[in-house]
Amino acid sequence: MSFLARKFVPKVAVDPNITTKTLQDEVEKKYQIQVSDQKVSRAKAMATKKIEGDYRVQYELLRDYCAELMRSNPGTTVKIDVEREFNPSSTTRQFKRIYICLGALKTGFKMIGREILGLDGCFMKGPFPGQILTAVGLDSNNGIYLVAYALVEAETKDSWIWFLECLGDDLDLYANSNFTFISDRQKGIIPALEDVFSRAEHRFCLRHIQENMKSRWRGKLFKNLLTRCAFATLIPFFEKAMKAVYNEDESLHDWLKQIPPKHWRRAMSDVLLNNVCESIAKCDGPLTPNITNIFEAIKTEASQYKVIWNGRNKYQDSGPSLNQCVVDIDQKNYSCRKWELTGIPCKHAVAVNWNMVKNNIDVGSPESWVSEVYLLETWKKVYENTIDPINGWEMWTPFECPTTLVPPKHNKQIGRPKKQRKISEEEMQLVNKGKMTRIANTVQAKRS
User: CB atoms < 10 A from the CB of 140, how many?
Assistant: First the structure.
């Protein structure tokens, strides 16, 4: 063993009863293990570098990539923000943030016409970690529709303001825009929305409220109580649901009252979750697949309602459990407000439609009363806006800039996530049904 090898050999506890030869063998063994570990680490680093490329080089090519992206996808917006440089003559600029809104997604979102966006953030991995901020909408099939995304240094008020300002420029949103945003209760989002879009509606994701609630109130009973409150379409219904919560558990009632009702109940928006799942299937009807299924359920309920006409423009709908509603055809006023909130005729409206058709009044089918947002034709037109592929980096035209981008500082992220993500109750139910699992199964190849 060389002098340098002996110098850096890890210490070994000496037992006075063992011989010098045994001690030497033990030291040699630990040294070989250490050298082997170092070789494995170097090999892993070399393989990662070969697969993912050198991170520093990727930052140097970032401007070229953005130029290629905008060339192949007209209408795309890319904004890069760098750290403040105190030396103007420096040939480098340190990367801080990047915002991207692809032209096809921007056009498609405007064609959908649903003034609602979900905001969320997630962590990046690698030697230069940051966080990805996203803005997603809902398409005509109630599926997730990505609008824009950004890589920022951390999920803070400052980074959210920057992202929202970029988003507003692309979607023609202003401080007084009547828009609805859904998010978790991350502290940076709340003040950022108040600063940038002071008149917009801000709703909290119902699932996040439920997950926070489960730390003290678990079980199906409390979940159902929360759901009834969130799905209330009128203030009297909401107050009745909250009264039921109070009767069951006064402390839960007090906890929910701390969250302003305007931020989480269903008074202004029908969308309650921030991660709606998309299931696409073939559809021949006038509506998209998911909306067709929803509307079929509504028509089934409508078949149980009795309609009485007042002789002019109003109808009274009566159904099971003394459920009664007034429908004003001329004013498009429905006292349950569900049609107004969702753009989909409620069971009361469908029952009135059938009654009018039965009396030879030409009002079209119930599907013709559904908002154009949910039409299959609208859905197809939205996805005619396709994202075009780009060439490999060897074919990119170098972006003319006197400075070179360098990686950001390695800052410890706020609220660093756990190594293993906690499975929610809904995901666990899927696991139990055999539809998904996080358990990795070992596969062994056998010789034939």
Answer: 27
Q: Provide the pairing of β-strand 92-101 with 404-406.
A: parallel
3-state DSSP call for residue 151? strand
pLDDT tens digits, 217-275? 877 887 887 777 777 766 777 788 888 888 888 888 887 877 766 555 443 344 544 43
Contact present, 106 and 133 (Cβ < 8 Å): no
- d(Cα 372, Cα 77) in Å, to the nearest integer? 28
Residue 16: per-residue pLDDT: 59
CA-to-CA dists, residue 273 to 144, 251, 266, angstroms: 11, 25, 11
CB 352 within 8 A of CB 346: no
Q: Is 118 left (phi over 0), alpha (psi -120 to 50) or beta?
A: beta
Predicted TM-score of the model (pTM): 0.73
DSSP assignment letter at 287 = B
Task: Give the CB-side neighbour count of residue 302, counting CA atoms within 13 A.
Answer: 18
The domain limits of the chain are: 3-52, 60-204, 289-382
With a pLDDT cut of 70, the percent of the chain lying above it is 77
Vertex 278: Cα angle to 273 and 281 (nearest 5)? 150
DSSP 95: E
What would the mean pLDDT of 100-115 be, rounded to a whole number?
95
Among the listed residues 414, 405, 407, 417, the one whose alpha carbon sits nearest the alpha carbon of residue 128: 407
The mean pLDDT value of the chain amounts to 80
